[in-house]
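Issue 218. Parser rejects a valid record. Input:
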Amino acid sequence: MGSKKRFRHLRVVVWVVLIGALLALGGCRTILLFTGLGETIENAETGSPEAVLQDALAAALIQEEAASWRQFKGLIHPEQMKRNNQKKLWRTERFSRLRRQVDNYVIDKSIPSFKLVGYKELESGEHVLSIENSMSESGTPCTFALHEGAFYIKSCSL
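Output the parser choked on:
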């Protein structure tokens, strides 16, 4: 009986230390992502990768396709738009897929909000955000890179 209480006590202590370490390392976001709960992004900080992703989702929700593309293409990293074959790939495949599947990612179309389920900052300075996809058990990744002080979409599986 005493060993069961000690084991429970030890588990509580381990969880408290783990949560404290996560808070010290990265705050609430770290805990939400670590536990698998995710973080709902409703009003992303201007200039952040989350804001660029929110803008991309907003662009995909525009009914008129030409207007939607005009808004979206400004979010793509300039390096990705230098070659005609890359432009065509973004326009005909990646963007079209996002428009077809945007409902799988957006929680509230009026904002548009989404659930962040993964976040990594790479040594290269790129940021990889994974967002919840209602049609998949794993998050869908997008990579963002800086160009002249602003984040742009470098690659995306939406």
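Fixed in the parser; the record now loads. Strands lie at 39-41, 106-108, 113-121, 127-131, 140-147, 150-156.
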